[in-house]
């Protein structure tokens, strides 16, 4: 309970559910019950309801009339659409970073790339550094509609990536893929940046789909 009190309850509950999905405590089609979470986390049902509704809006969960809230079954089309949209939007927004980035910004991007390839970094750490890398490329983005849309897409794409990336890429490959983005940004060429970032996500989405098909 003390851990829950350190952060807003809704966000902490979302984090709990999100982690439970990543760790496959909940799988696609699993029902998530307010009462069960309320008893487990020792909180009232109101913030749990708020958390569930937000995850439904993000496409991580789905609400079925007269039945309840369930972990959404992710189809191959969902994956393709998610990563295609992510690549197009982030690629566009990152062009603003290229226009305004300082030498310190570029150095920070490069530092993130080095951290990703640290052999002492566990899976969670690599994903966290990757999130910081991509967040930095949005530092100078101004389109609030695209930013809000991307934030929603990120929840679903990060969930899929976190569960699968060790089967798709070695840490050396992770470094190479992100270095390619750094190089594109340094070029400050809008089309190159958009193409590289779109391909970055298209490749990941395709790999996740292929992994699902061989299970």
Describe the structure concisely for a colleague.
The chain folds into 2 domains: 2-71, Arc Repressor Mutant, subunit A (Orthogonal Bundle); 76-213, Four Helix Bundle (Hemerythrin (Met), subunit A) (Up-down Bundle), CATH 1.20.120. The protein has 10 helices and 3 strands, in the order ααβααββαααααα. It has helices at 2-5, 9-22, 34-41, 45-57, 76-100, 103-116, 123-136, 144-168, 171-187, 190-213, and strands at residues 31-32, 61-64, 68-71.
State the helicity in percent bands. Answer: over 70%
Residue stretches low in confidence (pLDDT < 50, at least 5 long) are: 1-6
CATH topology of the largest domain: Four Helix Bundle (Hemerythrin (Met), subunit A)
Order of helices and strands: HHEHHEEHHHHHH
CATH hierarchy, class of the largest domain: Mainly Alpha
What is the count of structural domains?
A: 2
Total helical segments:
10
User: What fraction of the residues are assigned to beta strands by DSSP?
Assistant: under 5%
Rounded to an integer, what's the Rg over CA atoms? 18 Å
Q: What's the overall geometry?
A: globular
Strand order of the largest sheet: 1-3-2
Main sheet: strands, sense, barrel: 3 strands, antiparallel
Q: N- to C-terminal separation?
A: 38 Å
- The CATH homologous superfamily of the largest domain: GntR ligand-binding domain-like
Q: Can you tell me the CATH architecture of the largest domain?
A: Up-down Bundle
Structural class: mainly alpha
Number of strands: 3
Question: How much is the average pLDDT?
Answer: 89
């Amino acid at each position: 309970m003390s851990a829950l009190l350190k952060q807003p309850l809704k966000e902490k509950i979302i984090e709990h559910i999100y982690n439970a999905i990543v760790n496959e405590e909940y799988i696609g089609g699993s029902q998530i019950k307010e009462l069960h979470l309320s008893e487990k986390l020792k909180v009232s049902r109101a913030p749990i309801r708020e958390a569930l509704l937000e995850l439904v809006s993000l496409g991580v969960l789905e609400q079925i009339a007269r039945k309840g809230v369930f972990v959404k079954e992710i189809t191959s089309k969902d994956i393709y659409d998610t990563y295609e949209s992510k690549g197009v939007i982030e690629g566009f927004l990152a062009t603003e970073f290229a226009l305004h980035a300082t030498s310190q910004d570029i150095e920070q991007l490069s530092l993130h790339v080095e951290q990703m390839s640290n052999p002492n970094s566990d899976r969670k750490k690599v994903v966290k550094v990757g999130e910081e890398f991509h967040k930095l490329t949005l530092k100078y983005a101004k389109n609030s509609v695209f930013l809000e849309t991307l934030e929603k897409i990120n929840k679903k794409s990060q969930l899929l990536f976190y569960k699968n990336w060790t089967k798709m890429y070695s840490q050396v490959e992770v470094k190479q893929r992100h270095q390619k983005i750094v190089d594109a940004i340094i070029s400050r060429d809008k089309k190159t940046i958009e193409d590289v970032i779109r391909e970055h996500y298209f490749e990941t989405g395709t790999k996740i789909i292929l992994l699902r098909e061989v299970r």
